Amino acid sequence: MIILRSILFNLVFYTNLIVQMIVMTPVYFLLPRKASWIVPKNWVRSNHWLMEKIVGTTFEIEGLGNIPKGSYIFAPKHQSFWDTYALLPWLDDPFFILKRELTWIPLFGWYVIKQRMVPVNRAARGKAMSEVMERTKREMATGRQLIIYPEGTRRAPGAPPEYKYGIARLYRDLQVPVVPIAMHPGLFWPRRKFLRFPGHFKVRVLPPIEPGMDPDAFLRKLVEVTEAASDELLVDTVRDNPHVPLPATAKQRLRELNS
């Protein structure tokens, strides 16, 4: 049954993406930039509904009161494709620093360009990277929220943390709060797998780390608070969803926590 539901969800998910992107294109491009966020945010909400109805997966968000007004860096754990889009409805006017190649994709790239995402040539150095930072500062100055994944790439639930120093540089240069996010969607939507598992999990928004700390001290605090919440949620999520198969990293981390 899980295999059939997973196949059906994947088919409906990507069909929903393509159909909504085509059908809603006139609305998206006629609306002012910020107002046009209603189109992708409604697409996200429809995906949450589909995942609940087809797969049986639900979630709740704790700590929404910790989200500040105005500009900040939104720093989630990254385990799954789910967390690349799922929290957009709760952000006012977010943006990403992303690979410039994504802006070349027909239609999708046009959506990205309209929302003034910041493209980066990963092979670039020096002046090109300085221009990316200047563009990021300009977007933040208008009250937007930068979404950045501190570990850079998707990590399996329970995997040892590998935070990149880039977020410490952004924290130093942008002088805005950083909001850590702990969650385990990777237990229900595993990376590099088509299977989707039913169950319920929590997304925890942690208190913001205010600007002004030494970058090294900031990074230590970010790792400490995020991983402590992540460990707590891992224990709770596995306890509440005993049917969910665990990756080796989660099993190992649970053994460490129980020893």
Characteristic key phrases:
alpha/beta; seven-stranded mixed β-sheet; 259 residues; single chain; globular; Glycerol-3-phosphate (1)-acyltransferase; 2 domains
Write a concise synopsis of the structure shown.
This protein is of the alpha/beta class. It has 2 domains: about 1-55; about 60-95 and about 145-259, Glycerol-3-phosphate (1)-acyltransferase (3-Layer(aba) Sandwich), CATH 3.40.1130.10. Helices cover about 45% and strands about 15% of the residues.
Strand and helix order: HHHEEEHEHEHEEHH
Tell me the overall shape. Answer: globular
Q: How many beta-strand segments?
A: 7
Query: How does CATH name the architecture of the largest domain?
Result: 3-Layer(aba) Sandwich
Looking at CATH, the homologous superfamily of the largest domain is: Glycerol-3-phosphate (1)-acyltransferase
CATH topology of the largest domain: Glycerol-3-phosphate (1)-acyltransferase
Structural class: alpha/beta
Number of domains: 2
Q: Mind describing the biggest β-sheet?
A: 7 strands, mixed
Quote the beta fraction.
5-15%
Give the low-confidence spans: none
CATH class of the largest domain: Alpha Beta
Order of strands, widest sheet: 1-7-6-2-5-3-4
